[in-house]
From TrEMBL:
Keywords: Carbohydrate metabolism, Glycosidase, Hydrolase, Signal. This is Beta-glucosidase. The lineage of its organism: Bacteria, Pseudomonadati, Bacteroidota, Bacteroidia, Bacteroidales. Transmembrane segments: none annotated. GO terms for molecular function: beta-glucosidase activity. Belongs to the glycosyl hydrolase 3 family. One of its GO terms (biological process) is carbohydrate metabolic process. The keyword Signal applies. Residues 1-20 form the signal peptide.
């Protein structure tokens, strides 16, 4: 890349001026003047980033901008002579991702590892998500970053997507509302967010070249809906387009997506950027309305300059993106002269992550053993991850955190006694396994030096579970009051999970079977804890233990958060935001998903696109709108745990459900009473069943609203009010290219899960129709599932 403005004489045209409007930035950029002084090359530089060392860009520029906040994913391009600084863009969803240490600097720059996105969504508590977002945003600002590359909002189309841990749900309403709350929280700090990956980035395999072939209806109702909700409710500063193609066009090159839908239909006013090295043709990306190409490559620069010169790209289109990017810079803390401290309140944030993580854990089974109310209990702790708790996933969703509280430490902190003998046995075993895995990675990196960096970035295989003889277990069972077994999973960017990762490994199965058998014989009980980022198989073994708690990957305070729940200090109130199938193949998309494929990582996106490998080069979304519970419940397929499921230590009664309709909305009220002996909160889900849904090929029910009670003491009640706009009852009608609300009687299902409906109400609704643009059509015939 050419060195231009960075080294030119300084001539600042950005001025500080007082403004009456408190929310307007104090320092302003005189866009007209700045634009007038920019050459075509300046503009082309400005709309692409500075590159990435080892991949693209000019080392001097990269060096200068990356040293602003080392470890940040990228920056905008600085135009020093015009007084336009580079602003810093940094990941990610579970907390700020920057380097924790810096060369020649004894200070540390650790960030809090908050719970993964899936756990946050499982709280169904938007206020809590907003508070977590606010704490993350405080760290963004304190460490001198300007835009957080989060939240990640793709639909969990299939349990094996490697990045599901970053995502929220199989349902767009949960995903959209969670993202909106997160964005609101982060942006309260006057720093930006980047809602990503827009759109349909539902697999990691060949993600830079995969064509997601989706009906217009499924796109609108499922894959775009969450973005639409979040963008309208929270106005993220930026949107990040996805790597993949949708119906034959790269997302980042799709004017239909980035201009027609995002801006014209939804009214989005912010800046759009690509995912890192996403898309191919810089001029086309600009033309589409993708304002910033990150982190920027020479070909994109060349393509923009040549495009303007040849007339292929109107200079007005480039100018528009320059202006939007200038507006982003103008709002940034860096341009506003914010003096960052590098000293976020990590102690306070440790408390935020501890509490929020406990609220998103899901109690899956409990025969009464939980809570382990007396701390005098002696726990025998099994499973590798009990001792090496997994805080989150890998890749850009990782956070460089100072520590992780293991379950072992959490139990000790909670006053429990833990078997030392087991602890020592696991320590030796873990050491041996770590060495073996390191050696494997070393060998693989040597064999494939091109991918060495990626191999380090990718999830490491977890060791097999340590097994014990019956005698050893019997001895432990005699000496302890209860066994806790943790099963762990790790996944991350670049690669999808394998079917073997969904199923239990032979050693995990054996460990559960043996421990349960020996402990039950000794009249002792067994709790299984899941330290995972995505759904696993449970149907074949869930009868064995006495209790199961899904702790997810709960951030750096994980062990403490789990013990807050196990001990009963906090009653579990999380519920699943996705369905847990009996078998992997029960998921309809399992035949249209890359199963155990080579991930085909192509960082610079320059591979020859072959077009014929199903689910790798293209993926047909044949399940159409029947994603998750929309499929299982409409087609009566048995599940292991339904969408929306989660137990509590207490019980709840639903009463006095009522509804009121006016022209614009339906309002449902329901009173929830705590009828058990523990304090607790309850999530209430409102599904809608459209008239004649079977004949009209609609899901049997769809979530439209939800709420959570306050913490209820035994005997206490709370009345929740849930509101659904009539327009949100619409389905997408492809023939009319319109959102259509069918006239008739709608059933309103008030549920504790998608399969536990507590009250059914009805509401008469008048027809309405809202036309939208007829865009993003599939280019091929899809064989869509129908009811
Ligand atoms: C990921 C994005 C991330 C970016 C910058 C990409 O590989 O897909 O989610 O924000 O890198 O790190």
């Amino acid at each position: 890349m050419k060195k231009t403005a960075l080294f030119l004489a300084t001539a600042i045209v950005a001025v500080g001026c007082a403004t009456a409007d408190k929310s307007a930035p104090k320092n302003k950029i005189n866009q007209e003047e700045v634009m007038a002084r920019m050459s075509l090359e300046d503009k082309a530089h400005f709309v692409i980033g500075t590159g990435m060392a080892g991949f693209s860009g000019n080392d001097a520029v990269i060096g200068a901008t990356r040293s602003l906040v080392p470890g940040a994913a990228g920056t905008t391009y600085p135009l020093d002579s015009l007084g336009i600084p580079a602003i810093v863009l940094a990941d990610g969803p579970a907390g700020l991702r920057i380097d924790a240490t810096r060369e020649g600097d004894s200070a540390t720059y650790y960030c809090t590892h908050f719970p993964i996105g899936t756990l946050l969504a499982s709280t169904w508590n938007t206020q809590l998500v907003e508070a977590v977002g606010q704490a993350i945003g405080e760290e963004v600002k304190a460490y001198g970053a300007d835009v957080l590359l989060a939240p990640a909002l793709n639909i969990m189309r299939n349990p094996l997507c490697g990045r599901n841990f970053e995502y929220y749900s199989e349902d767009p309403v949960v995903a959209g509302k969670t993202a909106a709350a997160y964005i609101t929280g982060v942006q309260k700090n006057d720093v930006g967010t980047s809602i990503k990956h827009f759109a349909a980035n539902n697999q990691e395999t060949n993600r830079m070249n995969n064509d997601a072939r989706i009906s217009q209806r499924a796109l609108r109702e499922i894959y775009l809906k969450g973005f639409e909700i979040a963008i309208k409710e929270s106005e993220p500063w930026t949107v990040m387009t996805s790597y993949n193609y949708i119906n034959g066009v790269y997302s980042s090159e799709s004017k239909d997506l980035v201009q027609t839908i995002l801006r014209d239909e939804w009214g989005y006013k912010g800046t759009v950027m690509t995912d890192w090295f996403g898309g191919k043709d810089g001029a086309r990306q600009m033309w589409a309305g993708n304002d910033m190409l990150q982190p920027g490559k020479q070909e994109q620069f060349d393509s923009i300059v040549a495009g303007v010169k040849s007339g292929k790209l109107a200079e007005a289109d480039l100018d528009r993106s320059v202006q939007r990017t200038l507006s982003l810079v103008e709002k940034s803390p860096r341009f506003q002269g914010y003096q960052y401290t590098n000293k976020p309140d990590l102690k306070a944030h440790a408390e935020v992550t501890r509490q929020s993580a406990a609220e998103g854990m899901v109690l899956m089974k409990n025969n009464g053993i939980l809570p382990l109310e007396s701390s005098k209990i002696n726990v025998a702790l099994y499973g590798n991850t009990s001792y090496d708790f997994i805080a989150g996933g890998t890749g850009s969703g990782n956070v460089n955190h100072a520590y992780v509280v293991s379950l072992l430490d959490g139990l000790k902190n909670g006053g429990y006694t833990v078997s030392d003998e087991l602890k020592n046995a696991y320590a030796t075993y873990a050491d041996d396994c770590k060495k073996a895995i390191e050696a494997e990675i070393e060998a693989a990196s040597k064999k494939d030096p091109k991918n060495a960096m990626l191999l380090r970035f990718m999830p490491r295989p977890l060791p097999a579970e340590k097994l014990f003889s019956v005698d050893e277990l019997t001895k432990q069972a005699e000496a302890s009051d209860v066994a806790v077994i943790t099963l762990g999973r790790i996944s991350g960017e670049f690669v999808d999970r394998k079917v073997s990762d969904f199923n239990l490994s032979p050693s995990e199965r054996k460990l559960i079977e043996q421990v349960c058998e020996v402990y039950h014989k000794a009249n002792k009980q067994v709790v299984v804890l899941l330290n995972i980022g995505g759904v696993i198989e449970t149907a074949s073994w869930k009868d064995l233990p006495d209790a199961i708690l899904c702790a997810w990957q709960a951030g750096q305070e994980g062990g403490n958060s789990v013990v807050d729940v196990l001990s009963g200090r906090q009653s579990p109130s999380g519920k699943f935001t996705m369905t847990w199938p009996v078998n992997f193949t029960d998921v309809y998309s399992s035949k249209n998903f890359p199963i155990d494929q080579d991930p085909r990582i192509d960082m610079m996106n320059q591979g020859q696109k072959s077009t014929n490998v199903r689910n790798v080069d293209y993926t047909d979304y044949e399940e159409d709108v029947y994603v998750g519970y929309r499929y299982f419940d409409s087609f009566d397929v048995l599940v292991s745990y339904p969408f929306g499921f989660g137990l509590s230590y207490t019980t709840f009664d639903y009463a006095d459900a009522s509804c009121m309709t006016d022209d614009d909305a339906i309002t449902v009220k329901v009173t929830v009473k705590n009828t058990g002996a523990h304090e607790g909160k309850e999530v209430v889900e409102l599904y809608v069943s459209a008239p004649d849904n079977k004949t009209n090929n609609k899901p049997v029910k769809e979530l439209k609203a939800y709420g959570k009670t306050k913490s209820l003491k035994p005997g206490e009640s709370d009345t929740l009010t849930l509101r659904v706009k009539t327009a949100d009852l619409a389905s997408f009608d492809e023939a009319a290219s319109a959102w259509v609300v069918a006239e008739g009687e709608y059933q309103l299902l008030v549920g504790a899960s998608s399969q536990d409906i507590k009250a059914t109400l009805t509401a008469k609704v008048k027809a309405q129709q809202t036309k939208v643009n007829d865009v993003m059509k599939p280019q091929t015939q899809l064989h869509l599932l129908k009811r």
